[in-house]
Design a protein that fits this description.
The protein is α+β, with helices and mostly antiparallel strands. It folds into two domains: 11-124, Fructose-1,6-Bisphosphatase, subunit A, domain 1 (Fructose-1,6-Bisphosphatase, Chain A, domain 1, 2-Layer Sandwich); 132-242, D-Maltodextrin-Binding Protein, domain 2. The protein is built from seven helices and 15 strands. An eight-stranded mixed sheet has the order 4-3-5-6-7-8-9-10. The two termini are 32 Å apart.
């Protein structure tokens, strides 16, 4: 927050042309240092500094923390408050803990397996909407569907099938699904660190989280979250939009 909207914020472009700032780097270092101090035997995967193996103190490499120091850096650099720090814990290949902290929105969502999902201490649950015609759909933007899928038409058709749609994007669309404020969220291209805690939170809130192919994963390259009731119908509607080859690189 101390660097948010700072006039002298240092901004660079990564090889994939996305933004990275000094705040991204500093936040990841801070989290990594905290994990190293508290859990020196755990592995870490972060967006900015990659994979770090477990330590040599006898700790189990079956535990891995997955970090996105600032999800929504493009919003961060423009002064838009829709950005968050994402942290997940993976144990024996299963995501078990998720935290989404959005300080500019004064919000924090979190969940652990078997313990439910919460937002600022309040228990949350997905909606009970059962008809697409009554659903609120969130998405990132339409150009991304054109760029990373063979056609955006299935997404356009789905947008016309629902009650309302909102181009929210990033973590927030999935947290709105977890809270029951939205019923569906979908994005065609995304990374593991963008999704790992979101899967835990959505599922603990009673929802369903998969990639566009229907696999229950945060590492499948795309994402669909829903209230579970509408999930299969949404996957079927979006199925014709096959991934372009570059979407997997």
């Amino acid at each position: 927050m101390g660097r948010f909207r700072a006039h002298d914020l240092r901004i660079e472009r990564k090889p994939d042309t996305t933004h990275v700032t000094e705040a991204d780097h500093a936040a990841e270092v801070l989290i990594r240092d905290g994990i190293q101090a508290a859990r020196p035997g755990d592995a870490v995967l972060g967006e900015e500094f990659g994979d770090t193996d477990a330590g040599n103190d006898g700790g189990s490499s079956q535990r891995r923390w997955i970090i996105d120091p600032i999800d929504g850096t493009a919003s961060y650099v423009r002064g838009v408050p829709i950005w968050a720090t994402l942290i997940a814990l993976e144990e024996h290949g299963e995501l078990t803990v998720g935290v989404v902290s959005a300080p500019a929105l004064h919000m924090r969502w979190y969940a652990a397996r078997g313990e439910g999902a919460f937002a600022n201490g309040r228990a949350i649950h997905v909606s009970g909407v059962s008809d697409l015609a009554d659903a609120l759909l969130c998405y990132s933007d339409l150009p991304s569907w054109t760029k990373y899928r063979t056609t955006a038409q299935p997404m356009i058709d789905l947008l016309h099938s629902v009650w309302r749609s909102r181009g929210v994007g990033d973590f927030l669309q999935h947290m709105l699904v977890a809270e029951g404020a939205a019923d569906i969220a979908a994005e065609p291209i995304v990374n593991l660190w963008d999704l790992a805690p979101l899967l835990v939170i959505v599922e603990e809130a009673g929802g369903r989280f998969t990639n566009l192919e229907g696999d229950r994963t945060a590492g499948g390259g795309s994402a669909v979250s829903s209230n579970a009731i509408l999930h299969d119908e949404v996957l079927a509607a979006l199925a014709p939009a096959k991934p372009r080859e570059q979407a997997r690189t």
